[in-house]
Design brief:
Blueprint lengths: L1 E5 L4 H12 L3 E6 L15 E3 L5 H10 L2 E6 L6 H6 L1 H22 L3 E5 L24 H20 L2 E6 L2 E3 L14 H10 L5 E3 L11 E2 L1 E3 H16 L7 E3 L6 E2 H12 L6 E3 L8 E2 L4 H7 L7 H14 L7
Parallel strand pairs: 1-2, 1-4, 2-3, 4-5, 5-6, 6-11, 7-10, 8-13, 9-14
Antiparallel strand pairs: 9-12
Length: 325
């Protein structure tokens, strides 16, 4: 029996695939390579080049590989861009999830771990976000992830689906040098790419009500995240009931300036970040507790900020990007 990983050729998905292998579970990858890389799929892991909007392809993959559960990571993940592309976002994230669930029901697959997002919270007016913090998404992306959670809930009511949704903020680092974050919108790649081009990384606003004036967020290591996805899969496969949602949060957060300082230290490239105006809608601080996930999913922050930066830097250099000495 095996577990289907949608989006398994992507940055997070490829780490989940390796975590499944390490835990003795057989992964099967479905990915349309719109943002992933086939070379991220380990040798010997079945790979199906298909979109999650293709129900027939999903059903075939499930039947051909004896799939018992799904870890659903595929989707359009760019919150800012989703404002300009709402229909595309809903097609990929809502219709895609509905199609996947249809394929699961048609083939008798009864367990799913859903990659949700802290974007479901919007801008919460609390110092520490918990699973009980009200959701108020502020982008089509955040809305689509919340609808995905609702779809799982409603299918569970109708068909007894075993499920849980994992919400998290900024995923960084690398668990192995051949896997890197290639997103054009995430902070670490943006900083590294600016340095590669001889430019200056940018901080958007340094006058927030935080200790150093820059925004504070959760940054979690991708390998820690992948581990808890696999623990959730194991528990669902064993018939255990999990909470409907879990936050994979750090509990304290890291500021943008702290990240810049760590990048300077790790890379040895001396730079002073450019201070740009605030971006509209950026809250000063969004940090979540991971206590519930620590209780049920063996969630822990096993990597500090320096190791997050160092592992991401090694993987980015291994990708063949040239940086100044």
């Amino acid at each position: 029996m095996s577990w289907l990983v949608t989006g398994g050729a992507g940055y997070i998905g490829s780490h989940v695939v390796r975590a499944l292998q390490a835990d003795g579970l057989a992964p099967v990858v479905v990915d349309d390579l719109s943002s992933g890389f086939e070379r991220f799929v380990p040798e010997g892991v079945p790979f199906v080049n298909a979109t999650i909007l293709d129900q027939a392809a999903l059903e075939t993959a499930i039947k051909d590989h004896g799939v018992e559960g799904v870890i659903h990571l595929a989707g359009f993940k760019y919150a800012g861009v989703s404002v300009q592309r709402p229909l595309h976002t809903y097609a990929q994230n809502v219709q895609g999830t509905a199609t996947l669930l249809e394929a699961m029901m048609a083939t008798g697959v009864g367990s799913i771990v859903f990659s949700s997002s802290a974007a479901t919270f919007g801008t919460p007016d609390v110092d520490l976000v918990t699973e009980d913090t009200p959701t108020n998404p502020e982008s089509p992306y955040g809305e689509s992830k919340l609808i995905g959670e609702w779809l799982l809930r409603d299918v569970a009511t109708a068909h007894g689906l075993g499920h849980t949704s994992l919400r998290y903020f900024n995923v960084v680092g690398s668990g192995t040098p051949e896997l890197f974050d290639a997103s054009p919108h995430n902070l670490f790649p943006l900083v590294f790419d600016a340095l590669a081009k001889g430019g200056t990384p940018r901080i958007n606003g340094d006058d927030y009500a935080t200790p150093d004036g820059t925004c504070v967020r959760d940054y979690v290591h991708v390998a820690d995240l992948a581990h808890s996805h696999v623990v959730a899969a194991r528990k669902l496969a064993a018939g255990e009931t999990l909470e409907r949602v879990y936050n994979l949060g750090s509990g304290d957060g890291v500021s943008v300036r702290q990240i810049m300082d760590a990048v300077r230290d790790v890379t040895g490239i001396d730079f002073t970040p450019e201070i740009a105006p605030r971006r509209p809608g950026d809250p000063a601080r969004i940090v979540a507790t991971g206590e519930l996930a620590a209780r049920d999913l063996d969630w822990a922050m096993r990597h500090d900020l320096r190791s997050m930066v160092a592992s991401a830097w090694e993987a980015r250099q291994n990708a063949g990007v040239n940086y100044p000495n």
